[in-house]
Amino acid sequence: MTKSLGAYIHVPFCSTRCGYCDFNTYTASELTNDGSTVSPSNYVDRVIVEIDRQFNQLGENSKPIETVFFGGGTPTLLGANELVRALAHLKKRFGLAADAEITTEVNPDSVAAHDLKTLREGGFTRVSFGHQSSAPHVLQLLERTHTPGRTWQAVNWAKEAGFEHFSVDLIYGSPNESDEDLISTLAEVVTAPLDHVSAYSLIVEPGTKLAAQVKRGEVDQPSDDVAAHRYELIDQMLNSAGFEWYEVSNWAKPGGECRHNINYWTNQDWLGIGPGAHAHIAGLRSWMTKHPAAWANQVDSGLAPIAGSETLSEAEILNENIMLGLRIKSGISLEILSPTALAEAKQAVTEGLLSEQEFRKGRAVLTKSGRLLADGLVSRLWN
Ligand SMILES: C[S@@+](CC[C@H](N)C(=O)[O-])C[C@H]1O[C@@H](n2cnc3c(N)ncnc32)[C@H](O)[C@@H]1O
Ligand code: SF4
């Protein structure tokens, strides 16, 4: 089966860093302190050089791109015209499929109505807003800069601009969040014109400000039991509003699924453009130089900014298919499991983690309890 081609474009800039975040992103002062001259105003010029290099590298294996995802960081810090310029270059080189899905992440306070209009007119089809929570004290603990109402204002601007696909990211299980806070957040989410929701339990990432606050006892460690209960609340409220889970952390109304992410989870091909971006082309995985200054130096010197690459062995590919496939609604075929893993899967059915009905049809598909324990189950099924 021929694989579809996607493109991920990383934008490594944020105006401030949220205390919990360990993504590859930098504030202006962090970049200046590192002696870097790369900035939002000269970033797309380098992205364009990279698009050309990657197009030439693919040569005759190049094909029209079916999904594009601008992620960050804060892509909208580049300005809507610059995002459109990068997309136009991608289209000029590779071509875009007629029904291509073109997403950008948007921090709610980083766009105005006219930016969303520019993005829509420039070919973007989908916006993903980092809402996180509607409770002001939760947003404060997370060090978010937007007010809760700003997300809904921006969603309405996007709707007026002609977008049809809207998503929000939520973070649940923050130590100062109550069940009522989450229920109020979801009540707003289900009344907004969204067709997609991603919800992540708050992870205390090592090396972040949040990790230091937890270590000093200033902020409680998020509780796994609370997170599990909140996940059930999310699933329940989203289901009642017509959203269905299609990956452990993602829910969509019919037709609202993010095709770009489905391509990752089903092991298709994608280009990775920008510092730290990962690519996967014809079985070869590669990752770009992580720091924007070093990445920009390589691009400016005409070098490929690739930090490393590997070709996965058959066994590694199989384990990866198990890890990614088990988290999605269609699950995995039992045929790919080793005899030991199959016995584990049978045991997981008796534990209520895998659907008995699907198992009889030859597939391992998570139940709701299984979704809460997906990571542990993946390691039990690895060959
Ligand atoms: C790459 S971030 C960028 C989105 C955008 N910059 C924003 O914050 O609005 C994508 C999402 O990852 C989630 N995220 C980041 N760090 C997290 C953490 N430590 N725990 C849980 N979710 C996290 C947030 O929901 C965030 O919206
Ligand atoms: S705005 Fe998004 S990418 Fe930037 S620091 Fe916050 S969560 Fe991370």
Short note summarizing the structure:
Helices cover 43% and strands 20% of the residues. With 383 residues, it is α/β, with parallel strands linked by helices. Helix 3 (80-94) links the parallel strand 2 and strand 3.
Q: What class, by secondary structure content?
A: alpha/beta
**Individual helix count:** 16
How far is it from the N-terminal to the C-terminal residue, by CA? 24 Å
Query: What's the total number of strands?
Result: 14
Strand order of the largest sheet: 7-8-6-5-4-3-2-1-9
Strand content: 15-25%
Small molecules bound in the structure, each named once: S-adenosylmethionine, iron/sulfur cluster
Tell the overall outline: globular
Q: How many strands, which pairing sense, and closed or not: the largest β-sheet?
A: 9 strands, mixed
Order of helices and strands: EHHEHEHEHHEHEHHEEHEEEHEHEHHEHH
User: Which blocks of ≥5 consecutive residues have pLDDT under 50?
Assistant: none
Can you describe this structure?
The relative contact order is 0.12. The protein is 43% helix and 20% strand. The strands form three sheets. It has a nine-stranded mixed beta sheet, sandwiched between helices. The protein has a three-stranded antiparallel beta sheet with strand order 10-11-12, with no helix packed on it. The protein has 16 helices and 14 strands. It binds S-adenosylmethionine (SAM) and iron/sulfur cluster (SF4). S-adenosylmethionine (SAM) binds at residues 20-21, 23, 71-72, 74, 105, 107, 130, 132, 169, 171, 200, 202-203, 205.
